[in-house]
Hints:
mainly beta
Amino acid sequence: MGIICKGTIAGIEGNTARVLPSDAEAKPTAKIMIPWHLRGDTGKLEKGTLVVYAEFDDATGLLLGRADGEWGEYIPRLRTDSTSASGISLSAHTHDIVSGSSSTGRPKGE
């Protein structure tokens, strides 16, 4: 079982943060995980940032997001260094639109 809380980052170490809960009587959390999409320039997290986090009975936790609604410099995206997948060129890869559907057709050239 766990709970969702709001608090302020007390410190960051690697991929974890300690959070001071907004409840004045509460003690800082153990180190909770910062997910990949909130690390570095993406989340712009620092000491004093207001956050929302989940804390579990075993004292582990996960930072869920910034409580101020802000974001970093860019939105992360997945990318590949490969130029082809299963023999299909990724740079020249296109699809036809299927009329009346919310999906695309098979890749051209297949």
